[in-house]
Design brief:
mainly beta; 27 strands; aspartyl esterase; hydrolase; Pectinesterase_cat; signal; EC 3.1.1.11
């Protein structure tokens, strides 16, 4: 029976296109329902293969180093939850990655479908609770997300650890990308469903920073109908010490051509010499060099530190796609 199961799993691997993934085990867990996924996580399966077309409802917490891959022959599997929060977004994220080690996630959609305006409430911050995260990464985790689509209304993606995002997309409204860790987004599409706060809000008090490289920032098809072009700030500080680098990227019409918001999250505001906003190689209708707020732009930044994920993460072996 064990031999038969191993052969069956091996025969399925071609459907997931996982030949490049490390440490593939013939004992991988192949799951297509919530119970099976929770069981695989509880058993700390090193490789979890999600069946295409499957939808997994609820919250999922990954507490061990592993690889989770969605089957590529067919529609990508979906992890979804409808959660609001009044306190910690992390604890109510649809997918919470909190292992002491590396977690690789590939070809999966992660959604938080709690939408104020669809439930008859104001979606502009008046609800006593706010929509929570799609994905959260803890301080102890190295996360590699490849072709992962994330969607929420607010605070869509949180990185407090080390995060590498390759392609995929992030859809949101307020501070949709935020954290205090180190994050490198490459080839990712960012969809603005509204223009609250900023696209990025970062806290760099512990050496964290975020790099947007070759990203495409555009208006979402399912956002607020009354959102005007030129009103979405690219970044704002989440603490006085904040490092945000945007390079080689396309800015759509939704982006405010001044780029940077001086007023930060909570009591924090831009502080010259501590808040680092830097850019190079920008293009697209949302980028007008003459309108960029140069008073908030760091002009002597060493971009050689942000050329590739390998350089950015100091040659770490896990930081490979």
């Amino acid at each position: 029976m064990l031999l038969f199961r191993r052969l069956a799993v091996l025969s399925l691997l071609s459907c997931w296109n996982v030949e490049a993934l490390p440490s593939i085990s013939p004992d991988a867990a192949v799951v297509s329902n919530v119970a099976a996924l929770h069981a695989a996580l509880a058993k700390r399966a090193p490789l979890i293969l999600l069946r295409s077309g499957s939808t997994f409802n609820g919250q999922f917490i990954v507490e061990h180093a592993c690889t989770i891959v969605g089957e590529r022959s067919g529609s990508a599997p979906i992890l979804t939850n409808a959660a609001f929060t009044t306190s910690s977004n992390v604890d109510s994220a649809t997918l919470y990655l909190k292992a002491k080690g590396m977690i690789r996630l590939e070809n999966v959609h992660v959604l938080n479908t709690a939408e104020d305006h669809n439930s008859g409430q104001s979606a502009r911050g008046k609800h006593p609770k706010t929509p929570t995260l799609a994905v959260a990464v803890s301080q102890s985790t190295q996360a590699v997300l490849v072709d992962v689509k994330q969607k929420s209304w607010q605070d869509t993606f949180l990185c407090n650890g080390l995060c590498l995002l390759e392609r995929g997309s992030i859809s949101g409204w307020v501070d949709m990308i935020y954290g205090a860790g180190k994050a490198f987004l490459q080839g990712t599409t960012i969809y603005n469903r509204g223009c609250g706060g900023a696209i990025v809000a970062w806290r760099s008090t512990t050496g964290g920073s975020v790099v947007l490289n070759d990203v495409n920032i555009v208006r979402a098809n399912d956002g607020f109908a009354d959102v005007k072009d030129g009103t979405c700030w690219l970044a704002r500080p989440w603490a006085v010490d904040s490092v945000v680098v945007v390079q080689n990227s396309n800015l759509g019409t939704i982006v405010n051509p001044k780029l940077w918001q001086a007023n930060g999250a909570g009591p924090f505001s831009f502080a010259k010499g501590k808040t680092i906003f830097a850019y190079r190689g920008l293009r697209g209708p949302g980028y007008v060099e003459q309108q960029v707020d140069q008073s908030l732009t760091h002009h002597r930044h060493d971009f050689s530190l942000y050329t590739t994920p390998a350089i950015y993460f100091n040659g770490a072996t896990w930081a490979k796609v």
